[in-house]
Specification:
Layout (H helix, E strand, L loop, with lengths): L2 E5 L2 E3 L5 E8 L8 E6 L5 E7 L6 E3 L7 E6 L4 E6 L8 E7 L9 E5 L2
Parallel strand pairs: 2-10
Antiparallel strand pairs: 1-3, 3-8, 4-5, 4-9, 5-6, 7-8, 9-10
């Protein structure tokens, strides 16, 4: 059974930083790309970032390029999203996803507000 458990969200002021973590289990982790999606209040799911199975290739939503960095530790079955220079428009629930499936975690809330 696939499980993805996100953590690390919280309340931060604009310009601040957060590091999200996702613990994965129930599948051969290093065979799959993983992604981060988010849902802003009142909006649909938006893709944010993808990291390749060995972590060497990443892709980002244009609005987060240069501010967010996704990485993974295959030895620990963990995926991370380092978020710097946060903006109020980054507010939302962030989800870790196994690419190629509908498997997502329960999400972690990120609120950027002064």
């Amino acid at each position: 059974q696939v499980q993805l458990v996100e953590s690390g969200g919280g309340l931060v002021q604009p310009g601040g930083s957060l590091r999200l973590s996702c613990a994965a289990s129930g599948f051969v982790f290093d065979n799959y790309l993983t992604s981060w999606d988010r849902r802003a209040p009142g909006k649909g799911i938006e893709w944010v970032a993808t990291v390749s199975p060995v972590g060497t290739n990443t892709n980002y939503l244009d609005s987060v390029k240069g501010r967010f960095t996704s990485s993974r530790d295959n030895a620990k079955n963990m995926v991370y999203l380092q978020m710097n220079s946060l903006k109020t428009t980054d507010t939302g629930v962030y989800y870790c996803k196994k690419v190629g499936s509908n498997d997502r975690g329960q999400g972690t809330q990120v609120t950027v507000s002064s």
